Amino acid sequence: MPKKYYGRTSLPRIFNSVVTRLLVLALCIFISGSVLRYFVLTHFLREDLSAVVENQQLALATYVAHDIDGKIVQRQVLLERLAASLPTRLLAQPEQLRAWLKEHFGYQTLFSAGLFVVTPNGVPIADYPVLRDPLTINYADRDYVKAGLGGASFVGRPVVGRAAKEPVLPMSAPIRNESGEVQAVLVGVTALAAPGFLDSLLQSRIGNATGGFLLVSPRDKLFVASSDLDKVLKPTPPPGVDVLHDRAMAGFRGAGITVNEQGVEEVAAMVSVPSTGWFVVGRVPSSEAFATVGRMQHFLIKNAVFAILVFAVLSSIGLYFVLRHLFYAAEHADRMTRDELPLEPLPVVRDDEVGHLISAFNRLLIKLNDHQTELTRMAHHDTLTGLPNRAHLSERLRQVLALARRNETQVGLLFMDLDGFKNINDTLGHEAGDEVLRQVAKRFANTLRESDTLARIGGDEFVLLLSDLEDDNAEEAVSTVAAKCIDALKTPFFIFGTSCIVGVSIGIALWDRESSADNLLRAADRVMYQAKKTGRGKYIIYKH
Q1: Which of 173, 154, 177 is nearest to 92 (CA)?
Q2: In the 8-state DSSP scheme, what is residue 236?
Q3: Residues of the chain by 3-state class (helix, strand, coil), percent to 5
Q4: Which residue in 264, 303, 282, 176 sits closest to 225, CA to CA?
Q5: Pairwise CA distance, residues 443 & 460, whole Å
Q6: CA 130 from chain center: how many Å?
Q7: How far apart are CA 482 and CA 539, in angstroms?
């Protein structure tokens, strides 16, 4: 059909087309404007490109700064929680304290270089992992130890670690007794290049080669991290060398063009990292940022005459190209309806009538794909809590067991049933019950590792799947998680102005390398009911 339609196309039809008229008008504008374009475009393009590049650098630096700030805050909050939960009686028992540090280091790996505890006189009493040097080094002069003994959490000056032999970032949090008095300081140390911390910044580049990021500590006058590894933990340049850098050290945040300490002009943007007082610098040499200006100048001079001739020829056959893409789009769409091609958006070649039609088709196709994606998600997730449902859990459980066989690791499954939930449904109504389930799901989720899976399999029943456990401490690990889940529900829920108490009974089953996924789930379900019969708010581990 398209070929027959095109065969009937005549010259009057071409000349009467709005597309042809636009092409002719564009040709006239192109010829008359080519004389002025060189003189106007160069100046305009540099100004416009400068604003674009500055905004781009600011956006990149903002993203990196927010990412770093989130990671610092995450570690500060974790360290404060660990310090608050550390029993002060262990300060007089170094071996038991080291065991406590080892246990919590295993669950919380954010401090890749280790944890250690320092007494008020500055001497460490326990650490994990164990340092090669004996615990005789005095840390009383460290800024983070001084701040911790003063009762405040603190992010210390980045240094080259004595044990790690690489740049690290120490943080501290005070350990208090029941009276609120500082008894010691808990210190967590993270390698700057540790995966998931500053490794992405250290490896990032902007532009072809020389652009990148800097992480600067104005307090310490130090480059904390840099895409240029030679700058890491090096002092910042003295005042007067880089004007924009001097403004940033004095508090300026924004973007601009400057000349760095190597004498290279560059576009730089500075964004604060609030949790530390640091700032991130995103920079790219002007030679790369404005390379388009130079290329545009050469292009205008060299190709102006040739472009006019080519554009004149193209305008005379423009209708052919417009109709050709229309026919192609129709044929492509027809083949997709016959399942000969995958469902995918059609290319929009020109922003004309045909382009609008293809764009509308693409939007419709995207909506259909989004609808299909949503249906797929709904089939594997609980609509109330957003957690995986029973079908998703079964699939995930089979994957985890297969992986455990290969890696020779252990798997734990916690079958959890809420205590007192029916009473809330009966007295406050189903809307209140639904809100309780959503809040319970959030509290349980806060106890998970990234590799764990929390699912709601129906009613007030939840299942927590723990993978990649070590055989020798699997029972201890699942017991710890079960206790956290029970503790997570001890705080009352406030639903529609009413305080509600909900508990949980937990049945735990450990994989014996012989049982199937269904058997593991049934075993956990069975002991969960035993836990309910023993008084609720407890957990029982299934014994083979």
Answers
A1: 177
A2: P
A3: 50, 20, 30
A4: 282
A5: 14
A6: 31
A7: 7
Q: Running DSSP on this structure, what letter comes out for residue 231?
A: G
pLDDT in tens, 395-453: 999 999 989 888 888 999 999 999 989 888 888 898 999 999 999 999 998 888 888 99
Rg, C-alpha atoms of the chain:
32
CB 415 within 8 A of CB 524: yes
The pLDDT value recorded for residue 272 is 93
Report in angstroms the alpha-carbon separations of 471 from 23, 510, 511. Answer: 74, 10, 10
- The H or E element containing residue 30 is helix 18-85
> Nearest-CA neighbor of 539 among 389, 413, 394?
413
Instruction: Quickly count: other Cβ atoms within 10 Å of residue 35's Cβ.
Output: 9
| Tokens (6 digits) for 489 | 């529900």
Amino acid at 186: L
| Beta-ladder partners of 412 | 466, 510
**Whole-number Å distance between alpha carbons of 68 and 274:** 10
> Tokens 């039609």 — which residue?
357
Q: Are 405 and 492 in contact (CB under 8 A)?
A: no
Give the span between the Cα atoms of 118 and 130, in whole angstroms.
14
Q: Which token pair is 242?
A: 């880089």
Would you call 419 helix, strand, or coil by DSSP? strand
> Under a CB-based contact definition with an 8 Å cutoff, are residues 71 and 188 in contact?
no
- Residue partners of 347: CB distance under 8 A and separation at least 6: 358
Please tell me the predicted confidence (pLDDT) of residue 2: 41
Q: What parts of the chain have a pLDDT lower than 50?
A: 1-9
Catalytic amino acids?
460
| Termini Cα distance of the chain | 72
Place of tokens 């100004």: 47
Whole-model pTM: value is 0.48
